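User: Hand in any protein.

Assistant:
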Amino acid sequence: MKILIIEDEPKTGNYLKQGLTEAGFVVDLIRDGLDGMHMALSEPYELVILDVMLPTLDGWRVLQNIRSAGKEMPVLMLTARDGVEDRVKGLELGADDYLIKPFAFAELLARVRTLLRRGGKSKEPDVLQAADLELSLLRRRVTRGGKKIDLTAKEFALLELLLRRKGEVLPRSLIASQVWDMNFDSDTNVIEVAMRRLRAKIDDDFEPKLIRTVRGMGYVLEIPER
């Protein structure tokens, strides 16, 4: 499958191209918005990874021109800006998903594969839910029982991973690679500390308890059977 990356930051662009190539994709990397738009319109790509801040033509204009030309390939937007307005703008212009920098490559790869399976025909659901717990991807907002819960960026990413893989026991090594973008170190307790803090916010004052430790295996978010 052929992917186009439009990203002017050399380190990020090379990192993405190498990782996606090693994952088995054919990858073209363009560092200029106008050139990237011409490539997207003239070549048969299955997916475009598009940065927002680009020279000559920004990502919004590139996306708008791709959709105006009738191209329906999925577009994954990359942005360093965490404002709700930017994410809404991208989705309204026709983006299929977005990822905020910095990000773990494992998460980007998972999103790429999901978009390719869909063929761009359906959108990423905005709200992930379990019982009365809701996480809004677009608004970066978490509530439980209607009560707003304030999370750090890492806690939000951790909860998003647990909700996306609801009912599945996630080993610490997977959590480390997806949330912290690092190899698992058995001598560090960073995951345990983060999970303890997340549970205190998500579960301590609510029923039922949703996050569970599976001894010797990892963690799972699930709705317990009554």
